[in-house]
Amino acid sequence: MEGMLRRLYGECAVLLRKDGGFPLDLTEGPVTITVHAPAGLDLDGLRAAAAQDGMAVQTQGEDNADAAVCLVCRDPDDRAFDLSEEEIRRIRTGRAQHGRFLLALCSEIPLDLSPIMEDVQNILLLPPVGEGAWQTLTGFLSGEIVPSGRLSETWSQLPPKEEELSPGRDLTGVFRDYAFYEAADVPVLFPFGFGERLTDFAVQFVETRVYGSMARVFAMVRNIGLWPGREVLQLYVSLPEGRFRQPRKVLGSFVKTRELWPGEVAVESLDWRMEDFATFSAADHAPVLEKGDYILLLGVDSAHVRPVSTLRLKSDVMIPEGKEGMEGIGRIEKITEDDLPAAGGEHAFHHPALSSMTDWEPGKAERIDASCLPVFEIDPKLFWKRRPRYPEPSEASEAEAARMTESELLRLVEGQGVKTMDLTELELPSPAVLSRSWSREGVRELGAYRAGDARDNGNVLVQIPCAQAFSKDPCLAAGICAALVRGVQSRRHYGCAVSVLDGSDRSISPRGLRDGLLRPLFLMLREAEPAGIAVPDGKINGVSALNLTLWDHLLRGIWMYGGALLFDGRDLLSAYRCGADALLRGPGGGKVRHEDLLRGSARMLDLLAVCQAEEDEKEMLT
Predict the structure, then answer these.
(1) Alpha helix (H) residue ranges in 122-259
(2) How much is the pLDDT for 443?
(3) Which of 214, 256, 384, 584 is the most buried (most CB within 10 A)?
(4) Is 308 exposed, middle or buried (0-12, 13-18, 19+ CB in 10 A)?
């Protein structure tokens, strides 16, 4: 298992630059490494990891080293974007003193490396300081680990400064990360999805097949280098612009190959559904696919893509969400203790707090030349009018809840039948680091391994941060978050509760809310169904999320999510105001109706059934 864990950590490491000087040759005897580290950094873990790989670590100032490593570290709470003068000095000193020099960045966030880009030719991005970082670093130096990670966000020379753009514009919705940098022409050091490889790959487009409104792109990958390695294929889509400004391209799908040895070939497929990337129209209260050409772009990062096929839609298509869902989504309701749940109310997208917020929009993007591409005509009639089915608790759970006493129902909806565990207690890398792996299989395997290793008595509900914590890109965030959910929930007695938002006060437009912040959650629910969804006590445009019936109407009425909605607070009354079923971290208080207790208890019994299921039954339930 230790080798498996080390390999999975290596999938999260990103090689940003290389000159062929690493890994080191250990066949001729022990190797000595000089480490230029920040003052006060404990290197005992690094020395132990290096010793296991046949290397010795010495500190700065000692002579006769075979190579040097300079460590630049950022704690998870440290958001310093710029390198300090002391860090720049250490990097340049180490590079001047040693022929073989590696800059190791232990950080969750991007850093501005522009001051030292001309000085350093080998850069490795690692998780923050800890066991995983040291084992990955020494594994790379010894050749035991081949980094196969890719960047989950763009690394730029200058961070985007919102105050320099028009005030009152939404920068957190549609134009995020690479979409913003491309639209605003901001220079970047390393593009989204970028990562060097120790080996070389040849990627060849094979064909595109269209099934209704879904496109499946096939590509062949050949390892033409001298090292084993894994390639990440990325499928981007250029959306047509009509009523809505669109990013130049958006990530639509991705896949990571298995480890390919020199000369080995793999054929991979990438699926993209048109309706999943429809643009939400506040005027129509529904997602809309605009007529025009949807150009599929295949590549290995956001800056290196080529068009391969075109899907042509001859007329606008409104994606039906059901009358009940469209009327209810996002309503502002004034709810009192005597009127619970309330009906009616003003639509949130007509509320003054939302109507004053608009998206930041660039000029119209230059269209990609797709004149020589094969064109697939998409019939607008393929987008059928769905009849939403509001998911109810199972009949068995409803019957069992009806037999319970009032006190038993209260204990159940206050979360006393399940233990809540933070993701950090599983000793997993942070969501931002996990997303660098771009590997659904690797993250799922790591989640299952850590959940099994941390097995506790009773039922455990692991709280997973909102999908935005994984990446600013909805597609990548959803894929990695779903893989983690499936991995953790594959273990008996374990379930997951994914947070809807991070609980902060968001200023965002209706389109930004649906197409930006909530799209990762929608795409994640396409791949996995967590036992619970955690509803935060935050604000959206200054309006309390507890006064928005968004969650119950959107998650159940439109997306047909059948799990439990859990309020991340300690007040049952507030939980039922936002359509939740139970408390995530009870016990709670507040006078509530008996029928609400029955409904919430039935949902919690279904949640416990998911946690308690045998491991061979988990796949069907989640």
Answers:
(1) 131-142, 178-184
(2) 93
(3) 584
(4) buried
- 3-class secondary structure for 419-486? EEEEHHHHCCCCHHHHHHHCCHHHHHHHHHHHHHHCCCCCCEEEEECCHHHCCCCHHHHHHHHHHHHH
Output the six-digit token pair for 95: 């590079």
CB 188 within 8 A of CB 155: yes
Number of helices (H) and strands (E), helices first, in the chain?
Answer: 18, 32
Residue-wise DSSP of 148-183? ----SS-EESS---GGGS-TTEESSSSS-THHHHHH
Take residue 545 and report the two structure tokens written for it: 């999320």
Closest CA to 129 of 38, 68, 61: 38
Cβ neighbours, 10 Å, residue 340: 14
- 417-476 pLDDT tens trace: 778 888 878 888 889 999 999 999 999 998 888 887 655 556 788 889 888 889 989 999
Sequence letter at residue 73: C
Pair 174, 359: CB distance under 8 Å: yes
Neighbours of 596 (CB within 10 A): 19
Cα 575 to Cα 324: distance, rounded to the nearest angstrom: 22
Evaluated on CA atoms 519, 240, 557, 484, the torsion sign reads negative
CB atoms within 10 A of CB 206: 14
| CB atoms inside a 10 Å sphere around CB 619 | 11
Cα three-residue angle 593-597-600, rounded to 5 degrees: 135
* Residue 559, both tokens: 């997306």
Cα 254 to chain center, whole Å? 13
pLDDT at position 354 over 50 = no
- Cα-Cα-Cα-Cα dihedral of 105, 111, 114, 119, to 10°? -10
Note the Cα 193 to chain centre separation in Å: 13
Beta-bridged to residue 22, according to DSSP, are none
How would you class 42 by CB atoms within 10 Å of its CB: exposed for 0-12, middle for 13-18, buried for 19 or more? exposed
Spatial separation of the C-alpha atoms in residues 486 and 54, rounded to whole Å: 37
SS3 content of the chain, % helix, strand, coil (to 5): 30, 25, 40
* Token pair of 90 as six digits: 């250490």
Per the confidence metrics, is the pTM higher than 0.85? yes
DSSP-derived letter for residue 139 is: H
CB 446 within 8 A of CB 439: no
The predicted-structure confidence for 561-575, as pLDDT tens digits, reads as follows: 888 888 877 777 777
460: Cβ contacts below 8 Å, ≥ 6 apart: 418, 419, 420, 421, 493, 494, 495, 611
